[in-house]
Amino acid sequence: METTQPTATDRTEVAAGQRLTVRVPGTSANLGPGYDSLGLALSIYDTLTVETLSSGELEFELSGEGAETLPRDSSHLVVRAIDLALDRLGFQRNGLKIIAENVNPHGRGLGSSASAVVAAVTAANAMVPDEARQDRDWILQLTSEIEGHPDNVAPAIFGGLALSWQDSEQYSSTRADVAASVVPVVAVPDFELSTETARGLLPASVGHHAAAMNSGRAALLVHALTSKPELLLPGTEDYLHQSYRAEAMRPSANLISSLRSAGFAAVVSGAGPTVMVLANGEAEAAAVTAHIDAFTSANTPDVAWRVMTLAVDVEGARVEVHRR
Ligand SMILES: Nc1ncnc2c1ncn2[C@@H]1O[C@H](COP(=O)(O)OP(=O)(O)OP(=O)(O)O)[C@@H](O)[C@H]1O
Ligand SMILES: N[C@@H](CCO)C(=O)O
After folding, report:
1. Pairwise CA distance, residues 2 & 307, whole Å
2. Segments of the chain assigned to CATH 3.30.70.890
3. Which residue, 279, 262, 207, 267, is CA-closest to 243?
4. Are 140 and 153 in contact (CB under 8 A)?
5. Is CATH 3.30.70.890 the right assignment for the domain spanning 182-309?
6. Which of 62, 108, 112 to mutate to test the pocket of ligand 1 (most atoms within 8 A of CB)?
7. Locate the GHMP kinase N-terminal domain: which residues (predicted)?
């Protein structure tokens, strides 16, 4: 979390006794050539319920991913993001009960940290009175600042395919609808790679030729995803990041090469090490799954893979306020 922590102490306290639930989709960023700009919302959901308490304590009920390892104090990512959002809104909290049901695997490239901060900031925004509440573009701005890039948070907020960009410190995003035949298939390995580590592997600059090649493929990818899925294989060719990160996720890189050689549009999901294939239709998705099973059985015996056929989430983050 790169944004500075709040310091204010003279804020209005949020009302105690509130309970709200946010459901947030996982996301796959980059999609090949869309480094730090394109992202897709996926049907794998984390659920965060927050209760505002009248005493100053923090209570945690964590289940699923990270339940054994995440901190249970104010250093928890969700609490830090709630505190920052409340501060920006002109509020502060008393105690909180955090109930997190985490399904999205951590450090695998499916946007788990983005889902957590989107859930937290959405929850904080729903905790304050109507007149103080902000819109989803405000949530995009703050969560992009926290993450350092908008490509995961945007689809987590808005659903669908998010095309995001940055002007100085200002983040923006627009949503596009993905062709109905596109089926995302993910292969999640049992090892982690943090986004921070993966970003550290990238060069400070790339040549003009690579930039030009990448621009063409990124433009093609948007057309392929929205209306011409038969062009997904050329549209997912990347020149900016995957090759530099391959050594840190060799089993994933080898699986991607094999899938692409067979004609399937395979990419590194986010910063990896998950592999995602954008299949064109259910029959192709089944063939992709069979290819992954055969390749990994023969070539990566030391890695356990979880293969999931998902859907594109079209709703984005959804908040439910429980009336008492
Ligand atoms: N639901 C959560 N609650 C609290 N902390 C979380 C949660 N999800 C992720 N995190 C924190 O974020 C870290 C993972 O973030 P990281 O950016 O490295 O990977 P990712 O978001 O899963 O993948 P990517 O950004 O490549 O899509 C976890 O190790 C954990 O510290
Ligand atoms: N665009 C980001 C996505 C992962 O958070 C990266 O590749 O580092």
Report:
1. 32
2. 182-309
3. 267
4. yes
5. yes
6. 112
7. 77-160
pTM above 0.90, yes or no: yes
Which residues in the chain land under pLDDT 70? 1-9, 324
What's the CA dihedral at 229, 234, 235, 238 to 10 degrees? 150
* ipTM attached to this prediction: 0.98
pLDDT in tens, 137-183: 999 999 999 999 999 999 999 999 999 999 999 999 999 999 999 99
Alpha-carbon gap, residue 83 to 242, rounded angstroms: 35
Task: Specify the CATH architecture of the domain 12-174+312-322.
Answer: 2-Layer Sandwich (3.30)
Q: What is the DSSP letter of 93?
A: -
Ligand 2 site-directed mutation target among 28, 36, 77, most atoms within 8 Å of CB? 36
Answer yes or no: is 113 a known binding residue: yes
Residues forming CATH 3.30.230.10 domain(s) in the chain: 12-174+312-322
Ligand 1 in reach of 243 Cβ (< 6 A): no
Which residue bears the tokens 């062709």? 179
